[in-house]
């Protein structure tokens, strides 16, 4: 678990870091219920996703966030941070996203995969 973690913030939710740290670092690695995840600052929004790229398992913590997309450091494909979809031309499942909740300055993540918006 992240060193800013403050334990559980309610049933199914795990506190992972505070907003100030995320704003400063953009991408923070966290462990939630045994899942290796990232929490990302995306132009004022907070997103939680798998750390491993679903295409080739590259470490997305080494990637870059630009214009609402997370770019893989290995193959330059990118994932839409709203729904996890990979950019056209790549055969890959979408990036798994997880629900987040912000309480005060604390970011919490739910270990269940978030349903993509329709």
* Alpha plus pi helix count: 1
How far apart are the first and last residues' alpha carbons, in Å?
A: 32 Å
| Average pLDDT metric | 87
Strand order of the largest sheet: 1-9-8-4-3-2
What descriptors fit this protein?
118 residues; mainly beta; 1 helix; disordered N terminus
Write a structural description.
The chain is mainly beta and 118 residues long. The chain contains 1 helix and 9 strands. Strands 1-9-8-4-3-2 form a 6-stranded antiparallel β-sheet. A hairpin with a 2-residue loop joins β3 and β4. The longest helix is centred in the first third of the chain and has 7 residues. The radius of gyration is 13 Å and the shape is globular. The N and C termini lie far apart (32 Å).
Brief write-up:
The protein is mainly β. It has one helix at residues 19-25, and strands spanning 13-18, 27-32, 35-42, 45-50, 64-66, 69-71, 78-80, 97-103, 106-113.
Secondary structure elements and pairings:
Elements: E1 13-18, H1 19-25, E2 27-32, E3 35-42, E4 45-50, E5 64-66, E6 69-71, E7 78-80, E8 97-103, E9 106-113
Antiparallel strand pairs: 1-9, 2-3, 3-4, 4-8, 5-6, 6-7, 8-9
